[in-house]
């Protein structure tokens, strides 16, 4: 995500946010039980969310929580 953000330069119109403690993930119900892969841990499902002026314009959530069939950078570009 950092490389993508940096490639847009200083005049970008896209804001990139991180949810390091998982509070936002829990609030929107996108937790993924990764205990079978990583031990006793909850992770965030792969998703993309486009928000414009505080309103969600698009939300793509990966059906299995881990793939990149609808939440990759290319998918963002198709929407915007």
From TrEMBL:
One of its GO terms (molecular function) is thioredoxin peroxidase activity. The keyword Transmembrane helix does not apply. It comes from the Eukaryota. SUPFAM superfamilies: Thioredoxin-like. Residues 1-77 form the Redoxin domain. It holds the Pfam family Redoxin. InterPro entries: PRX5-like (IPR037944), Redoxin (IPR013740), Thioredoxin-like_sf (IPR036249). One of its GO terms (biological process) is cellular response to oxidative stress. The keyword Lipid metabolism does not apply. Keywords: Antioxidant, Oxidoreductase, Peroxidase. GO terms for cellular component: mitochondrion; peroxisome. Thiol-specific peroxidase that catalyzes the reduction of hydrogen peroxide and organic hydroperoxides to water and alcohols, respectively. Plays a role in cell protection against oxidative stress by detoxifying peroxides and as sensor of hydrogen peroxide-mediated signaling events. Belongs to the peroxiredoxin family. Prx5 subfamily. PANTHER family: PEROXIREDOXIN (PTHR10430), PEROXIREDOXIN-5, MITOCHONDRIAL (PTHR10430:SF16). This is Redoxin domain-containing protein.
